[in-house]
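Z., the sequence and structure:
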Amino acid sequence: MRRFDSVFEDIDAYLAETNEGKRDELREQLEPLCFMKRIEHKIQIAWGGPEYGFKLYWDPECKEWVSGLFYWADWFKYEEEPLSPEELDKVLDAYSMDCQLP
């Protein structure tokens, strides 16, 4: 994946640079648009042979659930399926997730 490789080439160049001026220039190129905090809540339905459940993501800044996924894991295999907004609402209601928040 070209973007992935390119970003790590930039990071490696920044970390290896010993000239402070050039290092500052490289640091500016690495500046992110923003830092976003997401809190993951994991609902584990089954454990071992296979494990599956939901991962739900809460945005503490907006104070809302922003996304979720169904995950499934078994011997050397892991899969995730994003939830639609409707599916996310059903999972939130079924597991009373609003009660899990401070």
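The first helix runs from residue 2 to 16. The chain has a mean pLDDT of 91.

Let me know what you think.
H.
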